[in-house]
UniProtKB/TrEMBL annotation:
<dbReference type="Pfam" id="PF08274">
    <property type="entry name" value="Zn_Ribbon_YjdM"/>
</dbReference>
<dbReference type="Pfam" id="PF03831">
    <property type="entry name" value="YjdM"/>
</dbReference>
<dbReference type="InterPro" id="IPR013988">
    <property type="entry name" value="YjdM_C"/>
</dbReference>
<comment type="similarity">
    <text>Belongs to the YjdM family.</text>
</comment>
<dbReference type="InterPro" id="IPR013987">
    <property type="entry name" value="YjdM_N"/>
</dbReference>
<feature type="domain" description="Protein YjdM C-terminal">
    <location>
        <begin position="45"/>
        <end position="112"/>
    </location>
</feature>
<dbReference type="InterPro" id="IPR004624">
    <property type="entry name" value="YjdM"/>
</dbReference>
<feature type="domain" description="Protein YjdM N-terminal">
    <location>
        <begin position="3"/>
        <end position="32"/>
    </location>
</feature>
<protein>
    <submittedName>
        <fullName>Alkylphosphonate utilization protein</fullName>
    </submittedName>
</protein>
Length: 112
């Protein structure tokens, strides 16, 4: 059928090329066809101990963390539920009770 790989999001085999991007007509997902882009999409995030983190996991903070622009501190042992992995310097988005929404680095947490 197609010489292009299936869509990484929905698995459709009807992908096509548009310029340098590959496009899925079923879910409208676009991605680069290069090997570096495939590796970027399958990027893994590990905690301080080396456990693989995924969206929806619960983690525990392993170090006191000062909240920038505030006098608040996230204490050691604080449990954070339902994390979301994002790209960037702080690779975890979460909501901490009493503090609110914030970004954490995976090197300061361990999987609960």
């Amino acid at each position: 059928m197609s010489q292009f790989p299936p869509c990484p999001q929905c698995g459709s085999e009807y992908t096509y090329q548009d310029g340098e991007m590959l496009v899925c007509p079923e879910c409208a997902h676009e991605w680069s066809g290069s090997a570096a882009a495939v590796e970027e999409e399958t990027r893994v995030v590990r905690d301080a101990v080396g456990n693989l983190l995924q969206d929806g996991d619960s983690v525990t903070v392993i170090k006191d963390l000062k909240v920038k622009g505030s006098s608040l501190v996230v204490k050691v042992g604080t449990k954070v539920k339902n994390i979301r992995l994002v790209d960037g310097d702080h690779d975890i988005d979460c909501k901490i009770d009493g503090i609110g929404a914030m970004g954490l680095k995976s090197e300061f947490v361990k999987k609960a």
